[in-house]
Design a protein that fits this description.
2 copies of one chain form a homodimer.
Chain A lengths: L2 E6 L7 H16 L3 E6 L5 H12 L5 H8 L1 H16 L4 E4 L6 E3 L8 E4 L2 H8 L3 E5 L2 E4 L4 E4 L4 H12 L4 E6 L20 E3 H9 L7 H10 L3 E5 L20 E4 L12 E17 L4 H11 L7 E5 L5 E9 L3 H10 L1 H4 L3 E14 L9 H11 L6 E5 L2 E7 L3 H11 L6
Parallel strand pairs in A: 1-2, 1-9, 2-6, 3-6, 9-11, 10-12
Antiparallel strand pairs in A: 4-5, 7-8, 11-12, 13-15, 13-16, 14-15, 16-18, 17-18
Chain lengths: ~425, ~425
């Protein structure tokens, strides 16, 4: 019998009725003889309400107290699901992060999981009890205080539990039925990917796909946890339970690239709208100038993504263009303003009307010309590329936001991803 | 410098703005050099919402899971108050029951506090940090699970913390400014009692006064904790801070009777509307009949209060009248129905249109005739007494609900309680 970790997000547990639906998914696995640990998020809207209270209490606040408040959302869901499971005859108990314990770092609000002591839970799973575990949180053991993992952290909790329990699979139930080649709202011909490699999923997650949280994919990759993305809104009884060694072709399995037999060159097209472009005009072109610009930004914990440098016609100056998260733009401009004396520049221009389009695929490693095809295709559509960044398995370009949908659709067709 | 425990109920922390007001009360005490532990309830309405979720999940539910869900309300308030205190320059941290720990019995949903390990908190109070403690909950150490004390349990948490910290006073802040001779909504001439003895407060609490929870008064009485009832809606800066050995004449101090110099014969008139009367007609009048009636009720955990037995004219039968909580009436009637064969009776009649009026006073111990005055006065007003019960310091009568206000007002005047 397999150990199965099932994770349900906020929309899947938004009401008590939806929690009943979740319980039926769990019962299906239990009835098939599986040992089940469930990780739950807060009912949708609850975390936002709690964060709202904290901000109303004080804009600047103790992250430990923020955690104490915000972690309660998942605690409510876990208790309710345990009750519903018991009511349909499935033995269950809820576990809060500190009870297991899930030990975390002291970085309250964005803590990292350091260790999961899964022994007691494993024992109870073997006795047929379902463990319902609060996502998004653990305990910082030194201070004996609740610590949260940051927004979306429940995915990471689920993968960490799968590692601790040596689970057959970590099933992430969401409101979509898998990972698609791109956003189906933009490209109706987008296809579900039956399998996707950890590396690709990682790029997709960090490039704008909201399906899985980046850190959960990293953790799954390191520990080789097979992670599956599924919809909780499919009728629970219409799905097959997990069997050891066999995963049905539903949802998307995130797995090792070796498991993926027919590798596409490009697996997906991602886009991120929350980018902002900053251009510093007429900076003196001399050694050390980049450090003088990006040093203060790093000190302010502002993440710089793409960077492009142009020489101005006079040959002595340079224009420096880079991107940051749109939400960081006001802080970025402030930092640059206060460092103007030290950097020495003529002016700063910025725009949030940009979008980053990325083409992702493990197959790029062994196929040349993927980037050239992309640039040619965009150019033919009259789309101007503002910046480029690449990795071994992805190419990202920054373009004017007005062209976002056109670019995504063109590239989806170009790389043969359209459904027949 | 005194150790002060301050407890704030749900209406006092109903919004973040009210929590700011609470923080000003706390700051007043801190600024005066006092060491302060604060016990908080859930924001008003929150506990009801959580209980509603649990009931929606399943009418029959695991009390341990109920506790895990319902205890989150206080956890939110504690974190928020700690944040607000910090924001006005008062060092503070929140403590959940399991972190202290407050050890409780395993009776989830109505657990009793067994022990409070206040050492770490006491150390931090001495360092000038305010402890913000979740009311209503602790940890059942054997199972490592959160246990709640039952509705109104935060008063008990506060008194238990006062015991553990050897506090000068346990100040219970509510939405009324003290304990009154009776409900001022019924008798506008009702007076605030500057002091009331533990015994009297205990009778008042169990006879319908909502000001303090019964168990908190018992605990305060056993450990001689001076407990004060105050309004949180008075401007915080208009009140005097606690000084060792001196308590201002505001609110009501619940204390040992020795401290009360001018003892009244009667201190207050209480009334309870949540009573129901049950009459079992024509029961055979023979030994053991009471056991046959009240045994099954006790087995069903139904609390019987007043009992009256009349002999019917034939001399062989008896009518048995007793009262139960109105909410228990349907269950009571069911139990009697299924025991009809065994008891042997003609019929059962019941009514919830009754009210229990109680006259309470330590002074009754040394004054005869208090009851006689009461019966005569009610009779003169044409009020029929349906049942009577007495203790050393109280007399209760059951009357038709229609006469409730008339009876309370008459007795208030009769015993000289009207304000000048």
């Amino acid at each position: 019998m397999a150990v199965v970790v099932m994770k349900f997000g906020g929309t899947s547990v938004a009401t008590v009725d939806r929690i009943r639906n979740v319980a039926r998914h769990v019962k299906r696995e239990v009835d098939a003889g599986n040992r089940v640990a469930v990780v739950v998020s807060a009912m949708s809207g609850v975390t936002n309400q709690l964060v709202g209270y904290v901000r109303e209490a004080s804009v600047l606040h103790d992250a430990r107290e923020y955690d104490a408040v915000v972690a309660t959302g998942e605690q409510v869901t876990a208790g309710l699901l345990a009750i519903v499971l018991q009511s349909i005859g499935v033995p269950a108990r809820s576990w809060q992060g500190w009870q297991i314990p899930i030990k975390t770092s002291a970085a309250h609000g964005s803590a990292r999981i350091l260790d999961v002591l899964g022994g007691e839970i494993r024992k109870r799973l073997d006795q047929g009890e379902v463990a319902v575990i609060t996502g998004f949180q653990g305990i910082e053991p030194h201070g004996n205080r609740v610590a949260t993992l940051g927004r979306g952290g429940s995915d990471t909790s689920a993968v960490a539990m799968a590692v601790a329990l040596d689970a057959e699979v970590c099933d992430i139930y969401t409101d979509v039925d898998g990972v698609y080649t791109t956003d189906p709202r933009i490209v109706p011909k987008a296809k579900r990917l039956p399998k996707v490699s950890y590396e690709e999923m990682l790029e997709m997650a960090s490039l704008g796909s909201k399906v899985l949280q980046t850190r959960s994919v990293e953790l799954a990759m390191v520990h080789k946890v097979r992670t599956r993305v599924l919809s909780s809104f499919v009728a629970p009884e219409a799905m097959q339970p997990v069997r050891a060694g066999v995963l049905e072709d539903i949802g998307t399995i995130v797995c090792d690239e070796d498991e993926i037999v027919e590798q596409q060159v490009v697996s997906g097209i991602a886009y991120a709208k929350d980018e902002a472009k900053v251009t510093i005009l007429k900076v003196e072109d001399k050694p050390g100038i980049a450090a003088r610009i990006f040093g203060p930004l790093a000190d302010a914990s502002i993440n710089v993504d793409m960077i492009v440098q142009n020489i101005t016609p006079d040959g002595k100056h340079t224009d420096m263009t880079f991107t940051v998260q749109a939400s960081e733009l006001p802080r970025t401009l402030e930092v640059l303003k206060s460092a103007k004396q030290d950097i020495g520049y003529f002016d700063v221009k910025s725009s949030a009307d940009v979008v980053k389009i990325s083409v992702i695929g493990i197959g790029m490693r062994s196929h040349a010309g993927v980037a050239a095809m992309m640039f040619k295709s965009l150019s033919e559509k009259g789309i101007n590329i503002l910046a480029i960044s690449t990795s071994e398995i992805k190419i990202s370009v920054l373009i004017d936001a007005a062209y976002a949908e056109l670019a995504v659709r063109s590239l989806h067709t170009l790389y043969g991803l359209d459904a027949a």
